[in-house]
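User: Fold both of these, please.

Assistant: Here is the first one.
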Amino acid sequence: MTYVVMLAASVVGKMYDPLGWVALIGALVLGASRQRWWMALLLALGVTILNVVFVFSWWTQLGISSTWPSRASFLLLVFCVICGIGWLVGRTAAHLVKSEKSAP
């Protein structure tokens, strides 16, 4: 239960980070353009790699760079949740627009 709360708090916290918004908007676009679900996972992987590249020097200064694999894994999980939600919302919006156009 603690891990789920920590994940939820991290997802909310990532929305204060510009990369969190890039991931969310990118996933919305992927969902709205009816791309496959794994494209959102690739987006999450790319944003995670970019985030780790940006913060690794900061982790080194703090002395926590030796635990970067676990931190990167958690970041990947957070970005997967963000991209998954964005993709689902975009896909749902695309489905609703399609059903509105096909209604008599």
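And the second sequence with its predicted structure:
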Amino acid sequence: MLTEDRKTQAPLDYFVQPATMTAPGAYAPLFDGLPRDVAALAAVAQGLLIHEQIAPAYGVMLADERRATVHVRPVAQILERLVTEDDRPLTTARPPARRLAVNCRHFTVLTVAMLRAQGVPARARCGFGDYFGSGACEDHWVCEYWHAETGRWRLADAQIDGVQRAMFPVEFDPLDVPRDRFVVAGDAWARCRAGNADPAKYGLSALNQGGLWWIAGNLLRDVAALNNMEMLPWDVWGAMPAPGASIDDERLALFDRLAGLTHTPDAAFAELRATYADDDRLRVPATVFNAILQRPEAVSTSAGALSGLDAPTGSVTGCRSTQGASMDTVRSTDGTSIAFERMGQGPPLILVGGALSDRSAAAPLAAALAPRFTVFTYDRRGRGESGDTAPYAVAREVEDLAALIGAAGGPAFVFGHSSGAALALEAAARGLPIAKLALYEPPFIVDDSRPPVPPGYAARLAELLAAGRRGEAVACFMTEAVGVPAEAVAQMRQAPMWPALELLAHTLPYDGAVMGDNMSGHPLPAAWTSAVAVPTLVLAGGASPPWIRNAAQAVADILPHAQIRTLEGQTHATVPEVVAPVVADFFVG
């Protein structure tokens, strides 16, 4: 039997050795001569790296090609890119514009690597921080290092420098983060399972996403990190639930057990290591799915593998992004290839997504509807794996939907969300063979309950996109079209999912064209009364702002065969377990 001293020593020995993601490889000499205290090492990392979403706070506007380094995994590749651009010692702080664009996970693994090189046990922890001013617990990574003087592990957030301390309410020492301010994923899981915390508060508030499924994904990433496999925040594999998906009893029990093991990883060290090694659902495979780039990727562990990082918009033909769904393509009238997935059995139902989304966004709702329908999700033109034949016209998108209905075998049910609801409504008005139509919060502005989209919005958007300023284009859309306050958009730009929005920024003018003049505060087109004859269900969230609920009512009032239903407590996000039963009952109930 191991003594208590030996039980403590085993993990210390393990977490002092460079490993797959933290080994500097051929760049180990760069660590010679580094300062030997945690504060100074954190300062080194801060002088080399810049968080891609907080770069504007340092006066830096990152071009798309410079953001690609957020997809680097191993420290050896981080070091390779650093010295390729600037071969001065690591202790020489680079100007902010010359720093490597990364996120919290990269600050963490570089700090872990430097500490281990000096014989200090250190490990990455994946969880949630409550100190970013949003009122929620935001997806985050920190370094946990062994503080020999006190004989305990401390949490160090190497990302938080003076600039960020001025931005965020960080009133504690970032090199000794209180454990009620950064909560490891397993503890967040346990709190929520016990009813002591709201799962919706754990995720990314800027994207209005969170829940047990998000916590479970971070818990699995934390388990991997405790086994020296520190993956990207958006790497997906094994037992991770799909976004918004419910979790079955078997996986609930699995995550309950993992939460217990990661709460005291030293005491449970042997069991944690064995559990990870023996369970295919937990171990990081040779290939994972990059949810930002929407493609499978080999888990490269060495330097010299950076060539593919210069094209973050790339995708792999034929990859599957949704469990149980098969990917296919259909040709639209103008020859554009439209990628789609189908799943389930029953009458055909096509889901039409809104702005800044591809088919993966509809996957949780599709899964919830699949027991009763053959559900089609698709990449609207210009997104994901679909083509983008110029010039754009709304009529081309209507033809895309017509092609999907044809692939489905004839008349289909159609569900549209946000601007996708406006597109579905336009398709019905143009006479597509739609059996029934369901519209979730089409974002029309029909009165003075909110300001209309300002004049010149479309021109400003086009100018930003032409200049390659995709992030600013998304921010322009958020503030001027959606009506999100500028300070909230600034928070959103710090979120790990922001790069995925930027990848779709070029399609924002398409959604603007779909919306037409219907965000001007004027009544909806009277022609819809005669043009849209299909039975229609209009849905609105009871917790959504008045202007969008007014829009839903206006649509229901103008269509001759429409009904409206308010889903109490819901917002603009479609929660599958709430929306799916209502939609299914309307279509086939």
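The chain has three domains: 4-310, 326-447+522-588, 457-515.
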